[in-house]
Design goal:
5-stranded mixed sheet, about 20% strand, binds adenosine-5'-diphosphate
Length: about 450
């Protein structure tokens, strides 16, 4: 299954991740450098303290320096020992006293698992004398690490905060920038849901003239063109059907006349074909004209209170002859006084069409039922048969103009694939809806809901 992730979210995730990498990199470099610098500082400090003390030991004010080493913050890393290693004074006593002395060698020593920076100077009592004092400076390397760790903890709090702000800020900005895309999607959805090509993408004149703004304008131009093309196509269908209507009536009339005056069988057969095919074309033209008029909002629509029972009776009566040919029974069940607001002749032709389909696609000795009932404020009309049914592969396409499930099968009835699109247009013109439910081999049920 494909997960839906909006571009906004993807951009936000992408640059937040990038920020995370970038900040982590910068902070690692900064962290490493600052650790190195603090180690250097400690080393210099230890060396300086030791050298300073060593200079003063053995001089006239020796006592004073001993006192300072013992208590001054300035010499907190220094201790003084006899040449034997015995402790004399100093604040830094712990662990480091066990490390062997080594003259003026700045080094790292490990005591009890802890690392120390150590520096020693031996100050003889008299030049060349073996006796004297060792001055030792020491500091734990951990001290630098502790400093580093506190920086690390600050980073640990700061990074998520920066990232959160970046993500929120970035998401807000991209959301605003993508606003026109939402308008485009909304309009496209409305166009496809309502089949209303007149809708246009709303463009805010104050919005920035960026690529998305231009895209919206371009799409609106494209919609103008498509709307025009559809208009022209409708006009063409309407004009062509109109132009064909008169010649086909003449052919039909002359065919019927020919049928009347024909004496031999062959002539009669030919005339009959002319009459049948002319009727077929005439029916096709009437449907095309009706559809074109509804599309162009030019269809006369005479809405009035009509008795549904009467309309259904008329439709059933007109189909009885066709039904008898296949021994199909038509039942109707409409409660008396079922009145609805509708155009009588349009509704009649829609219901007749559905009954005629029920017969055309019905089984020999089958049945078609027509029923109506009030459901709340609506009126439901159900036309059902126990015929061949429609497979799921075709069911969504049956409303498409000129769509026929099986060309050969339907040709016997002069089918043209316009019946259901006409029915749908008529129902929708009334503000109603039509749905179909069908099981292949078992039958089909059309349900019209008229809002009254
Ligand atoms: P047609 O003129 O071919 O009957 P329609 O628009 O009335 O055109 O129907 C379209 C297609 O839907 C038909 O070709 C047919 O296959 C299928 N169809 C319509 N009504 C029924 C029905 N009651 N039972 C089975 N199939 C049907």
């Amino acid at each position: 299954m494909k997960r839906f992730t909006s571009i906004k979210t993807r951009i936000t995730i992408w640059y937040t991740a990038l920020m995370l990498v970038l900040i982590s990199f910068v902070l690692t470099v900064v962290g490493t450098l600052s650790y190195q610098i603090s180690i250097d500082n400690i080393e210099n400090d230890v060396k300086l303290q030791v050298s300073e003390v060593a200079q003063k030991v053995g001089m006239r004010h020796s006592r004073e320096i001993f006192h300072q080493v013992d208590s001054n913050e300035e010499f907190k890393n220094v201790s003084i020992y006899f040449e034997t290693g015995e402790y004399v004074v100093g604040q830094y006593l712990y662990d480091v006293s066990s490390i062997p002395f080594s003259m003026e060698k700045l080094r790292r020593e490990n005591v009890g698992g802890e690392e120390y920076i150590v520096y020693d100077i031996f100050k003889p009592s008299r030049p060349g004398d073996n006796r004297g004092y060792w001055i030792r400076g020491a500091e734990s390397v951990n001290y630098a690490k502790v400093l580093g760790n506190s920086v690390f903890f600050i980073i640990l709090i700061v990074i998520p905060l920066i990232l959160l702000l970046t993500a929120l800020g970035g998401y807000y900005i991209t959301k605003k920038a993508f606003m026109p895309v939402n308008n485009i999607i909304k309009t496209a959805n409305e166009i496809s849901a309502q089949s209303d090509i007149k809708q246009r993408i709303k463009i805010n004149p104050d919005s920035k003239q960026d690529e998305l703004h231009n895209l919206a304008i371009t799409l609106n131009h494209m919609l103008d063109k498509i709307e025009n093309l559809i208009k022209q196509e409708k006009q063409f269908t309407s004009d062509a059907s109109h132009e064909l209507r008169t010649p086909i009536s003449v052919i039909l009339a002359q065919g019927e006349y020919l049928l009347d005056i024909s004496k031999d069988e062959k002539e009669k057969e030919l005339a009959q074909t002319i009459v049948d095919k002319s009727k077929q074309v005439s029916k096709l033209i009437s449907r095309l004209l009706l559809l074109a008029r509804i599309d162009q909002n030019r269809q006369k629509f005479n809405r009035e209170k009509v008795d549904l029972g009467v309309i259904i009776d008329v439709a059933v009566d007109s189909m009885k002859k066709l039904a008898a040919q296949k021994d199909i029974l038509i039942f109707s069940n409409v409660p008396e006084g079922t009145i609805i607001d509708a155009d009588e002749s349009l509704l009649l032709s829609a219901i007749t069409n559905l009954i005629s389909n029920g017969i055309k696609y019905g089984k020999e000795s089958g049945h078609v039922s027509v029923s109506a009932s009030k459901v709340g404020n609506n009126t439901e009309i159900v036309i059902a048969d126990n015929g061949v049914g429609i497979s799921t592969e075709h069911i969504d396409k049956i409303w498409t103009r000129f769509y026929r499930v099986d060309d050969v099968r339907n040709d016997d009835y002069g089918s043209n694939g316009l019946g259901l699109s006409m029915v749908k247009s008529i129902v929708e013109l009334h503000g109603g809806t039509i749905t179909v439910h069908s099981v292949l081999g078992e039958g089909t049920e059309f349900r019209i809901i008229m809002k009254n």
